[in-house]
């Protein structure tokens, strides 16, 4: 394999692919190091936790949504840019807690959404969204067995 193929394969590995079809999928805690995501959701719900310190730099999320909901769990000062997101039918980006000034990472949303919505939760709301999941209960049990701390509710916390 030559260097061109190696670098091309490495760049393809960086994009995390998530596909949901008629279901609910939650990716919580420290589940990836990627900063690019290809998301396809059809008649489903997807929760993406992007608060991990392992996700560095600006984040790009390419969406393909059809009658679906995507919930993004972000840090307090992350900015959401949805200028390149095309809409068909009803839908919107619900971001009630957007920060007032510039700062933090930039999360770029692009692609197409048909009769769908994107919800953005930050800070305490993001922690609560993560805590009301089976993954959090399993993380608590595992942390108790290991004598460490859970990381699903707050991925920035050291596991000890």
Can you describe this structure?
- It contains three helices and eight strands; from the N terminus they run αββββββββαα.
- With 160 residues, the chain is an alpha/beta fold.
- Strands 1, 2, 3, 4, 5, 6, 7 and 8 form an eight-stranded parallel sheet that branches.
- The protein has helices spanning 3-14, 123-131, 134-146, and strands at residues 15-21, 24-27, 36-42, 45-49, 59-66, 69-74, 79-94, 106-122.
- 28% of the residues are buried.
Structure summary:
The chain is an alpha/beta fold. The protein has helices at residues 3-14, 123-131, 134-146; strands at 15-21, 24-27, 36-42, 45-49, 59-66, 69-74, 79-94, 106-122.
The helix/strand class is alpha/beta
Mean pLDDT: 88
Counting DSSP H or I runs of 4 or more residues, the number of helices is: 3
* Subunit organisation of the chains: single chain
Kindly state the percentage of residues in helix.
10-25%
Q: Mind telling me the C-alpha Rg?
A: 16 Å
Defining traits:
single chain, 160 residues, alpha/beta, 3 helices, 21% helix, 44% strand, disordered N terminus
